[in-house]
Design goal:
561 residues, alpha+beta, 7-stranded mixed beta sheet, 6-stranded mixed beta sheet, 17 helices, elongated
Amino acid sequence: MKNPMRKNPPTTEESEAYPHSDESSDSDGVVPEHEIPAQYESSNTPQLPQGNEKNFVYPEGLREYEPIDRDEDDEMDFWSAQLLHVVQNGMVFSSKEELMLGIHSWNIKCNKEMYVVESTTKKWRARCYTTNPKCNINLRTGPPCAWYANARRKTSDSMWQLTRWVDSHNYYGTVVGNSNRCMKSKDIATRILHHIRDDIAFPVKSIQAHIKDRLGVDISYSKGWRARQDAVERIYDSWLTNFRELPTYVDALKKHNPTTVVDWLHEPKGSSDIETFKYVFWAFGPVISAFQYCMPVISVDGTFLKGSYKGKLLITVTKNANNLILRLCFAIVDEETAESWTWFFHHLWEHIARHRGKKLCVISDRHKGIINAVSNLAVWRRNAIHRFCLRHIRSNLMQKFKIKELKELCWDIGSTTQQRKYDHSVDLMKGILPEAWEYLEEIGEDRWTLVHDRNNRRWGTLTTNISESFNHALKGIRMMPIKAIIERTFDKTVEHFLMNNQVAHNCRTRLAPYRYEWYQIRYQNSRHHRLQEYSYVSGRYRVISKIQTNECGGNDYIVDY
């Protein structure tokens, strides 16, 4: 299955800042090998004296090609990942990647640089960077550096062994600017794997600080970003691999969880052999059943993905009886458009909301795609109402009218349940700037205020904070490849039910712990109010609230129960 989203190609290593743009790439690009001096050509090389082969000494320039004097049966010295910078002649590495990591680490420890002269499937050679023709002339001080390293692949077990090794650089000076070319992004990824496993959103600036603290090397932001991406792919596989494995994974998920729903929208341009998906929607069976016992208020929101491919993650959440967030469903789309939101709301109704019936409340920001979907889909128009997040309303107001006093007044107007306080705050706003109240009034007071929320359809919910809180919790998940995202949402759902099962098992009250505590606080407060019955038939009462020590309270209310 092809990936549906555009890739963000990271800048190359060569593009990162370094004097004269000499920084080598992460691929260890091989520069042309130095020509062997004429005196070492086969026609000019001294011949081995007959009968004295054992005493023959190679010319100085060809000693690096001399075969290592080691029997295969000798005890081998293996390189250890716990001691990255410890390298010596004859050491054995399990792979070419380990070989390069070890030699890079050794050079970084010495605050020196190297470049690869030759890299094939059977041999690998490196020299001091000062011998590179591209080297900055300022680094070439003193005699030419004699450091070099040769390695070959062992034919018996495919391991790599250092056959020639000079254990020091003999040129004067260190790395200019403290930005060592030996520090490749793949080497950084190896050093931060444990951090990424603990927190996939481990900040790039923290990666830079970690490398600086441990190795004394400055790395660019782009190199740190690529290192984090490399580490993520090592843990969760590459993005392309995730796309290929996604259909198989989804089929297995549905097979072991029969009530789980996964729906696709494929691009019409896909070939008969390869289908390219545009949208994917998923919801887990236990969540669909649990929603029937949650408050009939859902919060919808979208957030962008941070991986190698662009896309948006759409989510719907609600709260259970214990005021804990329940993740209802998810979708990955290319962009937040009227089309994608309409497709999402259609599946949200078909698989989840229709089982709940009427009197649903949808709370969101004022995204045009969401407004279009809820108002144009007949099932949502008939069975649900749409309310706006008060925090987004306030933010929009402040962007249009940059007056500090309006911010608090907007919140007071939207959050109060008392008509007296509502009218007072509206009058204050009109006195400051009548245009501000006209702007809010055009939105529709029933869309964002509790006073005009008929039949308490919002259940006191003012904002989309529950979905945005979950967005914050998903900060790391958004950096994962797509299969890993679905897998992580499944794991989080399992954790949710395990935790709530334990809470329910230990509950000894008739209400959920949060609701019972909420009830007890209000019950104790109500005991200090004075109550007068006006009409038993119509359920109308007069309530006078308790007078507080600061002389507040003592308010008179008429309540219809």
